[in-house]
Backbone:
């Protein structure tokens, strides 16, 4: 697919000027890159650049870049912070200029709100006066920096009504083309699974699924396992459509518990893509040290993942062995029995 995108040209009275360029995209599935570490080794001058994502190869592999983490803070702290500083701090100049460039190349630039740090969600919740006070600054941030979507990473308990109010306001203020995703732990997308957000994602999907573009499931830290297709299949079997579920992974073992190396994750991605033509894609936490390239070439992770999904998609087009056919048939029968058993149990306890 070839993309020519003018999005970066007209961001709020041309804050950044980027030439129109046409790029070929490497995959039809999402490749989501989380971009939190913006400088190497804790410095304020050794920039982590996004530009290799669009300049290192003929095809652009990343489909979404999620800048984070955005924190909603007090007036004394500046209302909105990108990690430890307000977004207009000069140390982030390269972040916004790079973001404009990759957006002009057809990559959707979003911002991740929340995460492990507490505070944002109570400020975006509560009574109407509290919500309006803090939401207005988040809305202004989105407009100022030409953010094309928000990833809502709710890792503290929040009422369902509060997240629905936020989604409704974002949709009303920014329209249908604005991307809204959430980043639950993977188990929260299964019936009765562990959940950090407080609200029920099945209820959220039932009430506002039409306003949510996708879910970046966290398949690490014990909340999900990317070394097999089973946890992802559980989510699909429990009712979430494959096109809305992105398999979030760690890009480096230094980034947390649950890293799965490439030799083990490759067949999983190929299998999921082959059996789910609308497979939602993959997400990587996080960009700066992504393997296999590490600090020197973090863009390689996106390229590798795009290739893995494309190779999986090609499996659909070619004949598979009788042994593989049998294995898949047995697994599908098992999944059907497991799904029926879970439904029977839920009906029984109800």
Residues:
């Amino acid at each position: 697919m070839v993309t020519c995108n003018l999005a970066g040209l007209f961001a709020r009275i041309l804050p950044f000027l980027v030439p129109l360029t046409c790029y070929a995209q490497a995959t039809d599935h999402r490749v989501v890159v989380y971009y939190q570490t913006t400088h190497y080794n804790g410095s304020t001058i050794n920039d982590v650049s996004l530009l290799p994502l669009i300049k290192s190869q003929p095809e652009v592999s990343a489909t979404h870049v999620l800048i984070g983490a955005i924190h909603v803070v007090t007036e004394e702290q500046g209302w909105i912070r990108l990690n430890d500083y307000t977004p207009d701090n000069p140390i982030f100049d390269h972040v916004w200029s790079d973001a404009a460039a990759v957006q002009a190349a057809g990559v959707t630039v979003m911002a991740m709100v929340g995460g492990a740090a507490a505070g944002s969600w109570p400020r975006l919740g509560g009574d109407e006066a509290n919500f309006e006070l803090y939401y207005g600054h988040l809305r202004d941030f989105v407009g100022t920096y030409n953010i094309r979507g928000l990833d809502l990473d709710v890792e503290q308990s929040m009422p369902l009504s509060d997240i629905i109010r936020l989604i409704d306001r974002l949709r009303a203020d920014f329209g249908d083309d604005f991307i809204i995703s959430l980043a639950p732990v993977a188990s929260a997308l299964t019936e009765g699974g562990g959940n950090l957000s407080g609200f029920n994602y099945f209820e959220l999907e039932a009430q506002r699924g039409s306003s949510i573009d996708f879910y970046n499931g966290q398949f690490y830290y014990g909340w999900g396992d990317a070394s097999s297709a089973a946890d992802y299949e559980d989510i699909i079997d429990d009712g979430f459509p494959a096109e809305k579920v992105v398999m979030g992974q760690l890009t480096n073992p230094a980034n947390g518990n649950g890293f799965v190396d490439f030799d083990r994750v490759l067949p999983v991605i190929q299998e999921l893509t082959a059996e789910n033509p609308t497979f939602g894609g993959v997400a990587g936490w996080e960009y700066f040290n992504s393997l296999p390239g590490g600090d020197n070439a973090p863009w390689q992770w996106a390229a590798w993942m795009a290739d893995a999904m494309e190779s999986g998609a090609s499996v659909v087009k070619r004949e598979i062995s009788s042994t593989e056919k049998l294995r898949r048939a047995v697994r599908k029968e098992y999944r059907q029995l497991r799904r029926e058993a879970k439904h029977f149990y839920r009906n029984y306890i109800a």
Notes: The chain has two domains: 2-318, 320-350. The radius of gyration is 20 Å. DSSP finds ten helices and twelve strands in the chain. Confidence is low (pLDDT under 50) at residues 6-20.
